[in-house]
Amino acid sequence: MTNIILRGCNGKMGQVIADIVEADDDAVIVAGIDVSQNRVAKFPVYQSFQKCNVKADVIIDFSAPVNVEEMLDFAKSQGIGIVLCTTGLSKEQLAIIDEASREIPIFRSANMSMGINLITKLVQEATYILADAGYDIEIVERHHNKKVDAPSGTALALADAINQVLNNEYEYKFDRSADRVARSKKEIGISAVRGGTIVGEHEVIFAGTDEVIEIKHTAYSKAVFAKGAVQAAKFLPGKPAGMYRMSDMMD
Ligand SMILES: NC(=O)C1=CN([C@@H]2O[C@H](COP(=O)(O)OP(=O)(O)OC[C@H]3O[C@@H](n4cnc5c(N)ncnc54)[C@H](O)[C@@H]3O)[C@@H](O)[C@H]2O)C=CC1
Ligand SMILES: O=C(O)C1=N[C@H](C(=O)O)C[C@H](O)C1
Question: Measured from the CB, is residue 113 less than 6 Å from ligand 2?
Fold first, then answer.
């Protein structure tokens, strides 16, 4: 049985995770952490980790970047791992998370769906062939109108995966409105669309002379992310300290 503390339990993803875990015989949510106390849960909910003394095997985090340090301190004090799904973290926070992964196992992925993990590999393969052939690379992501961070963590992770193939020589271009110049070859354009209830779409566009190749992933429900997160929560306990990715679990 995997005992889970769910940070962000009263949010949209938190509620989907709670439903999935309730139907799972091998996992249970032993406590929730949420600054908002807007609903009644089937487990105790605390406003912060400081007020929580519940023992667990792992934390799942779908919340906000605020106070990520408090969660890391709690996990280190209990010697448990974190499945970190929150996006929009600053460079400084990412450095603190890396540092913590020397003491505890941390599974961090901006996108917990299997599909994005797969297309990341396809996109890297396409980049390898098409960048040399002169194709321009652009990423377009689309999400619901409640999403606060832009571009999405997944768009940035896709850009990083592409840039890895390109020896990290490309720059990210988020806004062209102030420019009056043609795009440079060594850039990856990243655009964000926000509207309605779009769950999550990521499209990588390779635009060449007279032809365009597009690789796209569409999430039709938040359950694809939640299932991946619960699977990661079962995978992590007992693992040595370190940083884990979707590929570690899938391999
Ligand atoms: N890695 C992945 O596959 C996915 C990641 N996400 C990310 O997960 C995060 C949450 O997404 P949603 O559930 O849609 O957002 P949401 O806004 O519906 O829920 C966030 C919840 O976290 C709570 N919260 C905010 N600050 C907190 C803090 N300091 N401590 C404890 N609770 C806090 C809020 O009160 C809220 O209930 C976002 O960063 C989003 O980008 C979302 C979907 C998939
Ligand atoms: O906020 C969301 O909803 C999502 N956020 C993640 C991201 O920023 O990449 C993943 C997913 O697309 C949904």
Answer: no
Domain boundaries, position 120:
114-219
Report CA(148)–ligand 1 centroid distance (Å): 10
The reply to whether 6 and 108 lie within a common domain is yes
Out of 50, 63, 230, mutate this one to test ligand 1's pocket (max ligand atoms within 8 Å of CB): namely 63
| Strand, coil or helix: 113 | coil
pLDDT tens string 217-245: 999 999 999 999 999 999 999 999 999 99
The CA distance from 203 to 147, in Å, is 18
Is the domain of 213 the same as that of 124? yes
Question: To test ligand 1's pocket by mutation, which of 9, 62, 113 has the most ligand atoms within 8 angstroms of CB?
Answer: 62
3-state SS assignment for residue 118: helix
What pTM was computed for the model? 0.96
Tens digits of residue pLDDT in 125-155: 999 999 999 999 999 999 999 999 999 999 9
Look at the block and give the residue holding tokens 């005992």: 3
Looking at the fold, whether 165 and 143 belong to one and the same domain comes out as: yes
